[in-house]
Amino acid sequence: MITNEREQPKTTIVIFGATGDLAKRKLFPSLFNLYKKGNISEDFAVVGVARREWTNEILREKVCESIANVAESTDQERAQFATHFHYLPFDVTGKESYKQLNELLTDLETEFKIPGNRIFYMAMAPEFFGTIASNLKTEGVTETNGWTRLVIEKPFGHNLESAKQLNSEIREAFNEGDIYRIDHYLGKEMVQNIEVIRFANALFEPLWNNRYISNIQITSSEHLGVEDRGGYYEKSGALRDMVQNHMLQMVSLLAMDPPIRLTTDEIRSEKIKVLRALRTIDEREVNQFFVRGQYGPGIVKETEVPGYRSENNVNPNSRTETFVAGKLMIDNHRWAGVPFYIRTGKRMKLKSTKIVVQFKELPMNLYFDKNKDYLRPNLLIIHIQPDEGISLILNGKKVGPTGETTPVKLDYSNDGVDAGNTPEAYERLLYDCMLGDAANFTHWDEVDLSWTYVDKISKAWELSDKSIPLYPSGTMGPIESEELLIKDGFKWWPITD
Ligand code: NAD
């Protein structure tokens, strides 16, 4: 939704899991930024609930600590912001907790003149989502004069079956239109920019198809290992943690047809068509299309790091993948024959999320013979993080009398344009949810289709007796990932470009 006037939505926000990491690192700072920018007025209230016996004062102290370095602000401003926070020790399975929550919300709505609008943010382990949604309904917390919305964090299920189960539980209490499934990649500035680059430039859209594009590469690589999340990661792995959601969302934004309008329904409908057109991979052919890997010991940023199997809460014989590369085919008119290569991994040489669109060669390039070492295909590079921007690689003439060519790089960087002012993904998504704009959240149909695609791959890997390829930490993954492209006559473009 494009809004020119700044709206100040009035709502209470209940954070389930307010003592947790997500609340501290992302939610409190994002709310503070919205407050500082005037996107929310003084008429808002947050209720933090969790198991611990905290008080309002303790929560407010924690909120102040978490926003101390977020935006330029005074102690007084932070303290004033924190007065909007209230804490309720909570047992998610006990009806009494929901009754207390309802009473507190009603009081706060009167105090802050909020017309019964409530956001319920699930920032705790997913096994509780269904129970919470159901209790919110049966105990009347969702019965208000305003709207009620449910925000749900990843992972949305562990496979299609568990995702369906979770969905049916939350759908008993909330309509699809009131469910906001977070994929924080969709809140990133440059991911949102994909649509603008494609649909607001006469230069790209006519070329955006299998006549002019030879392949598209999406890389999302991290320096970090599993840190203290070994227990979670063992059950997830890179395929479920990254591919099912973030990578497939980027594929669908890159591949979708222009929506007829920029509304939530129209955008989602085009993305869903892409996921429906993904070529199903038969379990027996998974190895031709997908590669997995696991990090061994190595050196990252000049520091020696242990292998995955030596991390805390990880099985010493683990076969969990920390790296995935894949080739996806989209069987529709626009993309038939164009591979979309994706790769994502932990403990890699570079920390970067980038999209490289490689254009086809000219049918007859007059400069080719003379300059084959220098002539490069045209590339459009979308830098998602940590740097944000666009590069376009063209060929130009080398200065001088030889007639040789040289790659020319046109760069646009977001750095400095809005320095310090670019909203964090969570800030943007929270604000969208308050405004009722679900375009950057995932519809159930997208979740359903992406699990259907990913389940085939994970099933084949579970049944396989092949050992998982190891890659040294500090590299760009196993050699099999390079081979995946080489056999098609391509290579991964260096993401240092
Ligand atoms: P966390 O373990 O740090 O916090 C969990 C919270 O849930 C705590 O406040 C805890 O008190 C509360 N809780 C747990 N059991 C409870 C119960 N029975 N009754 C009441 N409260 C209970 O977890 P987190 O890292 O904040 O993650 C929360 C959710 O967000 C998870 O689904 C996670 O996958 C997702 N997520 C987190 C991040 C992140 O950066 N931390 C990123 C993406 C998604």
User: What is the β-strand count?
Assistant: 16
Rg for CA atoms: 24 Å
Q: What ligand molecules are bound, each kind once?
A: nicotinamide-adenine-dinucleotide
Q: How many helical stretches?
A: 13
Helix content: 25-40%
Runs with pLDDT <50, length 5+?
416-420
Query: Which outline best applies?
Result: globular
CATH H-tier superfamily of the largest domain: Dihydrodipicolinate Reductase, domain 2
CATH topology of the largest domain: Dihydrodipicolinate Reductase, domain 2
Q: What would CATH call the class of the largest domain? A: Alpha Beta
Mean pLDDT: 93
Q: Which class do the helix and strand fractions yield? A: alpha/beta
Largest sheet: 10 strands, mixed
Give the SSE string.
EHEHHEHEHEHEHEHHHEEEEEEEEHHEH
Cα-to-Cα separation, first versus last residue? 33 Å
- Taken as a percent bin, the fraction of beta residues is 15-25%
Count of domains: 2
CATH architecture of the largest domain: 2-Layer Sandwich
Active site: 246 (proton acceptor)
Keywords: Carbohydrate metabolism, Glucose metabolism, NADP, Oxidoreductase
Protein name: Glucose-6-phosphate 1-dehydrogenase
Domain Glucose-6-phosphate dehydrogenase C-terminal: 196-493
